[in-house]
Amino acid sequence: MTVVIVDDEPHCIDRIVFLLRSYISPDHVSCFTTAEEAIKGIDELRPDIVFLDVRLGDKTGFEALAAVSYRNFKLIFTTAYEQYAIRAFKLSAIDYLLKPVEQEEFENAMQKALGKIARESLYDRIDVLLSHLSADNLPKKISIPSKQGYVFLDIAEIVRCEADVNYTHIFSKDGKKHTVSKPLKHFEELLGQHRFFRIHNSHLINMDDVKAYDRSGYITLSDHTRLEVSVRRREGFFKMLGIH
Amino acid sequence: MRGLIALVLILIVQPGLNAQHLHEEADSLLRHIAAMPPNDTATIDLRNDYVKSALFADPKDSGLAKFAQHTLATAKKTGYNKGMMMAYERLGLIYQYTSSNPYKALEYYHQALSIAKSDPGLIVYKWSIEGNIGLIHYEQEEYEQALTCFKDILLHNKTLELTATANIANVYGAMERTDSAIYYYREALANPQTEDNPAFKANLYSNLSLMYGKSGRTKEAMASAKEGLSLTENHGIEFVRPTMYANAAMAYLGVGDDKKAAYYAQQALQLSEQQGNLFLEKTAWGTLSDVFKARGDHERALEAYLRFSSLKDTLNNQNRRVEINRSQMQFEFDKERAIARSEINRQETIRKAYLAVGGVLLLTFGAAFFFYRRRQAAMQQKKEAEFKALVSETELKALRAQMNPHFIFNSLNSIGNYILKHDNKTAYDYLARFARLMRMTLENSEHSEITLAEELRFTELYLQVESQRLPGRFSYDILIEDGLDKEHILVPPLMIQPFIENSIWHGFASLSTGGYISIEVRKDDDMLIYSVDDNGVGRSSGNTERRKKIIGGVSITESRISIFNKQRAGGGKLQIIDKPHKSGTKVEISLPLQTAF
Questions:
Q1: What's the gap in Å between the CA of B468 and the closest CA on chain A?
Q2: Most buried among A66, B33, B167, B338, using CB within 10 Å?
Q3: What is the extent of the structural domain holding B274?
């Protein structure tokens, strides 16, 4: 197993090397402190696991990631406090660790990285990640983990999400249903910036798919589903619709 | 720059009318009505006539709406279309001018309009009702709609052509689209109907001059002002004079003739003082201030400016505003009467006079209402801005209070201490928790509301970190009422922590062991209650630092609660109870309970 750690601060590298000690000898860990070195190093070493810091001096880990040609590894980002990046990690289902790294969190991340699914569709997930970090207006996707691997959905193609205890059913325009083992709140946080609105305890909807609203408090979506807007959510709902 | 459009534009000046007269008229109508059969169409007509006379004689008469409603009911019962239409129109007038309820007025006008449209015999009334609707839109600052109305009238009705043109010009003036306003004022002036109405004409010139001035066309402004002035002087049009002078002063100032500008401004000032027209007085002071400034007389310029701004403040009192316009209206009545006393043909003119006075009233009230609304909107905005500022200031203070630097440095010290003792693992664990706590503080304070579950997670973590830092000093319990929907109850972030901090840092400061904090969360009707109960030294025996700290924390929490109350229309409060025999302090925070869904 080859592990690469990219971080511009040596003490952060030391911490991860320390936490890795029960998995791998420090001699097999290669560390880089700049984006340029990292790009070269990853392409040469073809590592199994890469720990990549978001901020690398005046560059970012994303720039490094976009530039490497070898991407067949398990990727774990590390960050101290980059909220925008954390949202993008969640949307693309890419793992990350918050610094200072807690032992328990680290073990969880390693368990995942050593599992089968971690390498699955990494190219696509990285594309999703980079698209959320770029400023252009291209259609954005979301990575949805499933038992077999990952499903990638255009966010605009999602009509609604429905809570089912700790699971969420995602309904897309083509009539398909995807079930994910994450609570609805998770998607509410991720999709809130993409014109999604929680109209009800159990329902998160795409505002662009609202076709009708009637006075009894029900809306009709483009797939003809009729859903109730909770009384407390109505004011916010109208605000989203642009009716004040 | 201070030239506000003088909206005293008179429609059609008709003679022989004053308030006294209207009173007599109304009284005699009432006597007639009493003597007639109640369901007769002629009675209904008379009742409608009475409403209009009475409305203009005494706009404060609160019984009129009821009277008109009764007329409407009778007309409906007898199926008398014209009576119904008129009654609706009267109700519209009443709501527009006496109760200042434009929405209701609009509703009635539309009722009247639909009758007028459906009955070919009544179609002639359509345009005057449209005119009323247009004025409401104007007053409501819905300029586009007002323009649509007036332009429609202009296109379809010859008799109302001049009024409509002038109103279009006024609307454009209010919209600050001076070029369009100028065009329509000129159109109005070119209308032959103005020929035998010098007062109207003078007023048009006065307003036109103002518009020219605003668009920087000083020469044209001067020419219009001169036209207006000569009409005013030659015909002795008293009620146009003050505005005319005020506008002329600005025109003269514009062409650099500050001598004349000063003269007219002073005249305008004198006249408006006599009338008690504060609005005009303010404009005149404004112009004078500009005149003095242009002359380099800064002392008097300042003095004039101070008068200007103090009048502005006075005018900002909205009630006064309405009063002023009422008395101004009265004044204008009398003036009108004086101008055209010679051309008397009572029987013929009475009916037209109603229309005319109606027009005057419409516009005068319109002006009053216009400024009143504008003022109100400004007040509203100011209030909102103040509230927003209060919210952000409080949130900032709250954030600072939670990020107590003492806490941060004490935590860093303990980490250092673990390191010195070579207890690396504990040092790192403590550090990681501390980092998580900081992260949560930052994230939570970005939101104005978080879930109760989130708040409790933070509280628990804070207690963990502090009890690790001060081993054995205190223990704690968090008791949450069964069945409380933590994930869906929304609360302001980080509200409990300052009080826990207070217990730990001050309540237990002199204890080395045995401190105990009990935190309880429960529901009481529609309130959520947090209580933080400690067995510390209590407030009364606490040192001054503690007391200061408490006061600071209390006032921040109290203003946060009051913001929360306002946003949710609830009655949350903060209570601090000193337990007997100095056995500790109990803090209770109650908040209006709200769930996310």
A1: 17
A2: B167
A3: 197-343
